[in-house]
Known about the structure:
This protein is mainly beta. The protein has one domain: Outer membrane protein transport protein (OMPP1/FadL/TodX) (Porin, Beta Barrel), CATH 2.40.160. Helix content is 5%, strand content 61%. The chain contains two helices and 21 strands. It has helices spanning 4-20, 57-60; strands at 72-92, 95-118, 121-139, 152-167, 172-187, 189-191, 200-222, 225-232, 235-246, 251-263, 266-274, 279-288, 295-303, 306-313, 319-328, 334-343, 361-371, 376-387, 390-395, 400-405, 408-419. Strand 11 (266-274) and strand 12 form a beta hairpin. The chain is elongated. Residues 6-30 have low confidence and may be disordered.
Amino acid sequence: MINKRLRKLFSLLGVSLATLSISPYSFSSDFSLPFYNASELGNTYAGWAAYANDASTSYTNPAGLSRITNPQFIASAISVQGSVPFVGTASTPVASVTGKTNGSAGGFAPMLYLSAPVFNNKNIVLGFSENVPFGLGTDYAKTSLVRYAATRTQAVDLDLSPSAGFKINDQFSVGIGLDVQRITITLNHMFGPPLAIPDFEGQNHLNGWGVGYHAGVLYQFIPSTRVGVSFNSQSVFHTTGDSILFTPISEIRTTSQKINITLPARAQASLYHDLNRCWALMGSVLYTHWSTLQQVILQNTVTPIGVIPVIIPFQYHDTFDYAVGANFAPNNQWILRAGVQFLNAPSNARDRAPNDPTGKMRLVGIGTHYQQNKCIGYDLSYAHNFFGRTTINYVTPLASVIGHSHPSSDVFGAQLTWNIV
Length: 421
């Protein structure tokens, strides 16, 4: 029979999943979102596959679940607020305008994690995670300089994952999880002269399911030092939805639009080390196989010249990212965190559009944890993304947008951790 603590944990899961159905999703322009909880935002997730200090390890490295010896529930939230300014020239076959415009990017994402040993067998620990590993979102006005390339763009990958960690011995653990993912995509823009006078609006809304897995190993060399390696498989989505063209006098719609899209595989290797009772250091190397995403084809897209396929080039290349961080615990109640993560963009200057304007960036974070008692802990974190200036080069037969963008974003996080003892 499932004990009282597990029944309480499963009831929390039901309430949490019901909450997700009404949660709004909108994100920054970073297609790969390096935010899986609020607590480790403070050290920019530098301990990704090795920190394994709470139930969120069920996603980053399920082998780390073997370290979570009591049932645990985590409610975490991330808020991203950013801007995506553009300076340059926008052209159609009949006109060209040079200037600047500003778009916005941001939103709110809840994340949930659960873990519990199987019938008090602390060598086998089950976990569940809900988070958003990939997201893309930008908003430009329907009258902006870049409106013929993009107005509203959003792609959100919601990941629901049961997982399990197995402790082989005192040093070595393994883990695996199933990723059931739902992606929703919105791609809106305006059509201009000579095909549309005044401007027509095109909207495309699609969604679909994908399945993948993640796995990991964790090795504890000595009590103060451990290494973790984890892997996330690629996921293939077959999405369907609506394509709509709004003209001043009519609305033309098809419900047979389709996109097939592959989100990339990823691998992470991390080191965690306690220097002494107060200080801990950590670092990670993260690899993303972005080259699987070269282009997508929007089948059955409504345009002023008919229902046609539209090709969106990405031409992404593989990336390595790096993170280092530190924790300082002056006593048993408080932890102070800091870190920096160096992220390389998969996009290139030849194909970069204004709705995916980011290049290389540096994420710098700080945070704090307060342990109220043996059951309840709280986290607050903040990070800023420092972006370089990126080249925008969007060219089609009907419109071109050429110039540069200099995005910025701020990330805020809050978290509640409940140890059920």
